[in-house]
Amino acid sequence: MLRRNLILLRVDKPGKIIILNGTPRSGKSSIASVIQKTFEGVWMNFGVDQFMQMTPEQFQPGIGLRPGGELPELEPTIKIMYRAMYEAIAQFSRQGLNVVVDVGHHEGYSVPLRILPDCARILDGLPVLFIGVRCPIEVIMERRIKTWNVGYDDDFKVPKPVALWQKLVHIPGIYDIEVDTSVLSPEECAKLISQRLEDEQPPSAFQLIKDIENE
Question: What one-character DSSP code corresponds to residue 133?
Fold first, then answer.
């Protein structure tokens, strides 16, 4: 018989929020899985894959739209989708549930959408740890080939959308902690994040990001 350890939620205290930001195939989902399985408390898993699964076909890829401004007609809806997702994250936290989120924030749209600062404002006052998940482009390409059998262009160059992801996803580059999945396993990344959670220094990245001027 499967035994479950029941956890009493503290609704008088907001749940922790961990946001993993990086390119596709950078290892965000693997880290999120380790966090959900090993960290103390209840950890709900939000992110691009889960959100895309609930997005109607005509609005795909939704918040997973890659940089390049290829589908400007979707962009107003994408901004609303991001806002809705972060409002949901905030509500989970206010109910005492911890949330781990894997996303790939970028501003590579046809017009500036200022999504990341808007999302930071939605989570204002909540305990948010913003993690930069980095991985060299060579490793990203190896993983793309292994997972999807999709690699370099015919001229042996990195495809433009992949290069744009790599260039834009870590702007402005303000994080509470960064991890490199080319040298650290998901478990090692999760351990560093756990140590940062236990640090007496409060998270500050989202506090700084929310005040970025809409130039």
Answer: E
Q: Do the annotations mark residue 27 as ligand-binding? A: yes
Angle formed at CA 33 by CA 28 and CA 38, multiple of 5 degrees: 130
What is the distance between the alpha carbons of residues 32 and 18, in angstroms, rounded to a whole number?
9
Alpha-carbon distance values, 12 to 21, 170, 203 (Å): 28, 34, 20
Tens of pLDDT along the chain (215 residues) come to 444 555 556 667 899 999 999 999 999 999 999 999 999 999 999 888 888 899 999 999 999 999 999 999 999 999 999 999 999 999 999 999 999 999 999 999 999 999 999 999 999 999 999 999 999 999 999 888 887 777 776 677 888 888 999 999 999 999 999 999 999 999 999 999 999 999 878 889 999 999 875 44
Dig out the tokens for 118 from the structure: 């808007």
Does 102 reside within a domain? yes
Joined tokens for residue 116: 């990341």
The answer to whether position 4 is within a domain reads no
Number of domains in the chain: 1
Q: Which residues constitute the domain of residue 149?
A: 17-209
**Is 25 labelled as part of a ligand binding site?**
yes
28 known ligand binder: yes
Annotated catalytic residues are 49
Asked if residue 7 belongs to a domain, the reply is: no
Whether the pTM exceeds 0.85: the reply is: yes
Q: How far is the C-alpha of 132 from the C-alpha of 113, rounded, in Å?
A: 21
Distance CA 186, CA 164 (A): 24
Can you give the CATH number for the domain in which 190 is found? 3.40.50.300
